[in-house]
Amino acid sequence: MRDMIGYCGLDCEKCDAYMATVHDDQALREKTAKLWAELNHAPILPEHINCEGCRKNGAKTVFCEHLCEIRKCALEKGVSTCGGCSEWKACAAVGAIIANNPSAMENLEG
User: Fold this and answer.
1) Given Cys at both, which of 3, 9, 14, 55 links 108, Cβ 3.0 to 4.6 Å?
2) pLDDT in tens, 70-94
3) With helix as H, strand as E and coil as C, how does 33-57 read?
4) Domain tally for the chain?
5) pTM of the model
6) Domain region containing 86
C-alpha cells in the first residue's frame, strides 16, 4: 500500500491541504480554509492548512492530528490503514468516508 493512502483509505496526495503544503500554495490554503470552515461551521484559517499526510511524520491539520477518530483508532490498533482491521467493513466512520469517496474502499482493499 502506498504511504500516501490515509488510514481511512483516502489518497492524501489528492487532498488540498497536502497539495498546498508541498507546493507552498498560499492561494490554495486560503481557498481550502474558506471551504472547510463553511462545510464544518468552524473557524478554520489558512495557517491551519498544512499537512504532509496522515501516516507520515510531519505537519498535519488540526483535525487530522487531534480530532480524527479513524486515525486515533488505527493508531490504537496498530494497523497501517483501516484495511488491516477485521472490523473495517462494519465501521460507520469508515463507511461514511467510502460513501463520499468510493475509491477509498479500493485503496483499503488493495
Assistant:
1) 9
2) 999 999 999 999 999 999 999 999 9
3) HHHHHHHHCCCCCHHHCCCCCCCCC
4) 1
5) 0.85
6) 12-109
Instruction: Note the pLDDT tens digit of each residue in 31-79.
Output: 999 999 998 898 999 999 999 999 999 999 988 888 899 999 999 999 9
Residue 62 lies in a domain: yes
Residue 7 belongs to some domain of the structure: no
Q: How far apart are CA 95 and CA 38, in angstroms?
A: 23
What beta strand segments (E) does the chain contain? none
Q: How confident is the model at residue 1 (pLDDT cuts 50, 70, 90)?
A: low
Residue that is written with C-alpha cell 466512520 in the block? 93
User: Is the torsion defined by CA of 78, 84, 90, 96 positive or negative?
Assistant: positive
Per-chain mean pLDDT for the chain: 93
